[in-house]
């Protein structure tokens, strides 16, 4: 790194003292590898060779106490700290835009306790989601939190971004599963929230850190509710004449009190490209004991057929489940996202709202983006609730713009889409977080309450070291 100032020498030595020399790196290759994520920006700078900020250090703590030591050091030196787990985020939440320390918690990857009698698991935040699920499966249990990134995302990242897995309609988001947590605050204090089913002992402060994306502290451990592996899991596909009819079917299924583990509705364009079918295709999965699955699937099918749906049997649902980790990424089979067919602008702006909102936002967002020449708009709906659900749009521009126009085009399309969401009263994101790319919309999302959130940030993190510039919070001076 060439000549270093005395301050940098001392900072490095203190970090080595906190976690050991093996677990601190200032090598350019490692620093570069941590300067990206799976956001459009994080992927594009690598492909286009853009110059981006690198962290000054990568640190791998091995315990909660080591995390606390690193934060105390960072506070003394007023150095930014970006908590990091799997690096699969899609909103730029871990991009080290002010340099500083990347704090990668993946060494903290142990399952601490599986309590079969009470249905809980306690694990460190660095454990990769699929490894946690496999450990539970060996005991006949499941967390049932299965996001598309399960093989490369960790528990800490799930909690920090309020993640949802594909089975969330039955089992809930990760925030519904958390009973207790351990968090290291920005100045190094360790706080623990008791793992109880519920409490009325004042505000639920642990929820302050869920979705905080490393801006208020570092989640190091969590206790979560788990479930027995389902006795029966059954899939089905139903074709509807159009998206509006499919949305009405989803509304009736949820209002009937049915609880599919997963229910995914593709609009006309996604159905055409993904399933090679006209109309709108819905796939669902029902979990539970056999009689329960039989009853719930039968009632859902009755409602769907009454609306003119066509029963396609189990094959479409089984095929979706088999390919669920790849169906939203560029492949030879998925022509909608096939890279040589166009240039994906990137639309990780999943939104949620009522059933009325979903109908409105699909049409109005498509209309708002139609002004862009050569743009394709498609969407699917999933993650349902008795009052509504989530829409995940794709935006594809045919033909790559030149480097100078790429970022401008990306943000113009995103702003137009977010303007529709906010005007209709939906939320700007359902389960991918805010990070860097959606930060400018947080003040409007929260309204007057955003000032309260900013005040909490200043109180907990007076030196603004924790992931500055994310979640719409203030950045740092250059």
Q: What is the overall number of helices? A: 17
Level-1 CATH class name of the largest domain: Alpha Beta
Number of strands: 19
Percentage beta strand: 15-25%
CATH topology of the largest domain: Uridine Diphospho-n-acetylenolpyruvylglucosamine Reductase, domain 3
Distance from first to last alpha carbon = 20 Å
Low-confidence stretches: none
Rounded mean pLDDT is 92
Secondary structure blueprint with pairings:
Layout: H1 6-19, E1 24-25, H2 28-33, H3 40-48, E2 57-59, H4 64-77, E3 81-84, E4 101-104, E5 111-115, E6 120-124, H5 129-137, E7 141-142, H6 155-161, H7 168-171, H8 174-177, E8 178-184, E9 190-193, H9 206-209, E10 218-225, E11 227-228, E12 232-240, H10 243-255, E13 262-266, H11 268-275, E14 280-288, H12 290-306, E15 310-311, H13 315-322, E16 343-344, E17 351-354, H14 355-369, E18 375-385, E19 388-397, H15 403-424, H16 442-446, H17 449-460
Helix pairs in contact: 1-4, 10-12, 14-15
Question: What descriptive keywords fit this protein?
Answer:
single chain; 36% helix; 19 strands; 8-stranded antiparallel β-sheet; 478 residues; Alpha-Beta Plaits; 17 helices; alpha+beta; globular
Write a concise synopsis of the structure shown.
By secondary structure, the chain is α+β, with helices and mostly antiparallel strands.
